[in-house]
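S.,

Sequence below, as promised.
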Amino acid sequence: MHNMALCFQKMGALEECSLCLDACLTQLSSPHVERVYRGDPPRKLKRLKYECKIHMQICALLSQLNRHQEALCHAKRSVQISQYMIHDLMELCEHYNQKIKEAKKRE
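The prediction came back faster than expected:
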């Protein structure tokens, strides 16, 4: 779906591109996708990065279509996801750092 959106964008069919990107977001929030990525931090972060990218793409696209309020909503959502990812990565780093310290103490 994302590749199709990119094709529409290259062809200048911005409304169709917007619909495809919306479908990508809908697909990402499906229960199946959530189940696949739950419990696997690297895969979860990859999914969040993809979601963030799609929101920014939609933001740029809606801005081109002079739908600035909707574009702003997607930009804000992208920033929220980015902040969540940074927080999540910091916690993950602290966790692994703690594991390394404990392993060094045992040596």
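Residues 21 and 54 are 7 Å apart (CA to CA).

Coffee later?
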